[in-house]
Write a structure and sequence with these properties.
Strands 1, 2, 3, 4, 5, 6 and 7 form a seven-stranded mixed sheet that branches. The two termini are about 20 Å apart. The protein is built from seven helices and seven strands; from the N terminus they run βαβααββαββαβαα. With about 190 residues, the chain is an alpha/beta fold. The chain has one domain: Maf protein (Alpha-Beta Complex), CATH 3.90.950.10. It is globular and about 50 Å long. Helix content is about 40%, strand content about 25%.
Length: about 190
């Protein structure tokens, strides 16, 4: 049986979510210079929601068939926070979020044969506890290999949950893919049974 869709992302988490939902997928990670695209969009005054959506669309547009592009951005106080490039940057990011509420915006765009047919941006609000610098430094030292690929320097599905005081929003959106909305569309459009 051919795959239902192609995932235009190298994200192991997104792949695992789709496979756990019973979808047959192929993976074809799209090459997009995310930092350059973000910088250009922000220079033009784009909102964090528009940045996430544009990155997801750029990824999906790179391949034929039914293709899913997805991306996630973290917005805090009107600024975008990217994946940390070093343990020191992860510590700085987490301390800047300490005691604050931030938003994770997870965008998904489906293309069929080069044209967009569906899109959604899920939003979750996360509030961090007030954290001590010593705790954050120890946390980053213990988890750097896992968090280095995560915006904000944490993963709620692991020890990063200890950083949080409150979470509002869909679990899958927080992990980087508005999965429920995607599955609903695939069922309604006849791509999968449901």
């Amino acid at each position: 049986m051919p795959p239902v869709l192609t995932l235009a992302s190298g994200s192991a988490t997104r792949r695992q979510m789709l496979e756990a939902a019973g979808l047959e997928i192929a993976v074809a990670a799209a090459r997009v210079d995310e930092e350059s695209v973000k910088a250009a969009l922000l220079a033009e005054g784009a909102t964090p929601r528009d940045v996430a959506d544009a990155l997801a669309e750029m990824k999906a547009a790179k391949t034929g068939g039914l293709v899913l592009g997805a991306d996630q951005v973290l917005e805090a106080g009107g600024a975008l926070i990217s994946k940390p490039e070093s343990p020191a940057e992860a510590v700085t990011q987490i301390l800047s979020l300490s005691g604050q509420t931030h938003r994770l915006l997870s965008a998904a765009v489906l293309f069929r044969d080069g044209a967009p047919v569906w899109r959604h941006v899920g939003v979750a609000r996360l509030t961090m506890r007030t954290l001590s610098p010593a705790f954050v430094e120890a946390y980053v030292a213990r988890t750097w290999d896992e968090i280095r690929h995560s915006v904000g320097g944490y993963q709620i599905e692991a020890e990063g949950i200890r950083l949080m005081a409150r979470i509002e929003g869909d679990h899958f959106t927080i992990l980087g893919l508005p999965l429920l909305e995607l599955l609903n569309y695939l069922v309604i459009s006849g791509e999968i049974e449901g």
